[in-house]
Write a structure and sequence with these properties.
Layout lengths: L3 E4 L2 E4 L4 E7 L8 E7 L6 E6 L6 E3 L7 E6 L4 E6 L8 E8 L11 E2 L3 E6 L1
Parallel strand pairs: 2-11
Antiparallel strand pairs: 1-3, 3-8, 4-5, 4-9, 5-6, 7-8, 9-10, 9-11
Length: 122
């Protein structure tokens, strides 16, 4: 069982940056692939980024590549998403998720946090 709690969201102007954090409970955090998804109002949840259990591999959606960076600190049971050069279309609730294998499909992740709101003003 893994419990996930996101933080770091907020209101930021276009072009700004935020660092989202996802703190995990449980001793098995370091064995999970961690993903970041986002969901804008009226839209489906979409994949943003993911990182392998040891941080050696990362994956990004085309829409965020070059602007977002995913990282993790297994000693702190925490995964991060650095979001730079934010655009109004990045406005969404951002969720972290834990899964056994990498996928960009939300349904294949086993555990989810409650989400943190990111709002980008133009």
């Amino acid at each position: 069982q893994v419990q996930l709690v996101e933080s770091g969201g907020g209101l930021v102007q276009a072009g700004g940056s935020l660092r989202l954090s996802c703190a995990a409970s449980g001793r098995t955090f370091s064995t999970y692939v961690m993903g970041w998804f986002r969901q804008a109002p009226g839209k489906e949840r979409e994949f943003a980024a993911a990182i392998s259990w040891n941080g050696a591999n990362t994956w990004y959606a085309d829409s965020v590549k070059g602007r977002f960076t995913v990282s993790r600190d297994n000693a702190k049971n925490t995964v991060y998403l650095q979001v730079n050069s934010l655009k109004p279309e990045d406005t969404a609730v951002y969720y972290c998720a834990a899964g056994r294998l990498y996928t960009n499909t939300a349904e294949r992740y086993d555990y989810w946090g409650q989400g943190t709101q990111v709002t980008v003003s133009s």
